[in-house]
Design goal:
alpha+beta, 4-stranded antiparallel beta sheet, 6 strands, globular
């Protein structure tokens, strides 16, 4: 129902979760500031050999749908933020994650990179949205340059999000989980808690610890 009706759903199992949903994040649930929000990312082939979106399986759109205002998308509430993680393979790197080579096309020529591929840009992020009472979407786009920041020097939010994603993939026994263990996810999250005002990140660390014990990992 929430997915089809652009709503929200929550599982409240304790007083801390109730406070988070019904107090801290209530405004972002009730007040929409942008509707039918769509995100499209184009990677520079000179920098990125392959990529994979982590999660969002039920939110994927065909590339043609990005410019189609009739296509329904998600809503963003006041104070709401969205994080999307991509797994990237840099250009020039050969790894097992990349599938077998595809035969050349018979009736089409291979596309060639444009002059923009020679820039320092890693990718271009496009965002399309409608005003809460609007019907025509607006487009904004941002070119992004790789800052070459090591993972350990990234900000707390990114490292914590990576720990959460790794935890989810390990619970699902995902073939993309890589070499991380539950201990790696727990230690990364623990170091990236930052100012944990409501104790939610500390609760996540406890959750990973319990999962590790149940799954027989140290």
């Amino acid at each position: 129902l929430a997915n089809k009706g652009n709503g929200n759903y929550f599982y409240i199992d304790n007083i801390m979760e109730a406070k988070k949903v019904l107090v801290t994040e209530l405004c972002s649930t009730l007040f929409t500031i942008a509707k039918d929000v769509k995100i499209q990312v184009e990677f520079n082939p000179a920098k990125v050999k392959s990529y994979r979106l982590v999660g969002y399986e039920n939110r994927l759109l065909a590339k043609e749908d990005f410019n189609d205002d009739k296509k329904d998308a998600g809503e963003i509430g006041a104070g709401h933020s969205v994080t999307a993680l991509y797994e990237l393979v840099p250009a020039g790197i050969d790894v097992d994650a990349i599938g077998p080579k595809v035969d050349e096309l018979k009736y089409q020529s291979e596309s060639k990179p444009t002059d923009a591929a020679d820039s320092e840009e890693l990718m271009t992020l496009k965002l399309r949205y409608k005003e809460p009472d609007g019907e025509a979407s607006q487009l904004v786009e941002f070119p992004i340059v790789d800052g070459f920041v090591p993972f350990d020097d990234a900000d707390n939010d990114l490292r914590f999000a990576a720990a959460v994603a790794s935890f989810g993939m390990q619970l699902r026994r995902s073939p993309y989980a890589g070499s991380w263990t539950l201990s790696d996810a727990m230690n990364t999250a623990n170091r990236a808690k930052g100012t944990d005002r409501d104790g939610l990140r500390d609760e996540f660390v406890t959750l990973v610890q319990k999962a590790s014990e149940l799954m027989g990992e140290e």
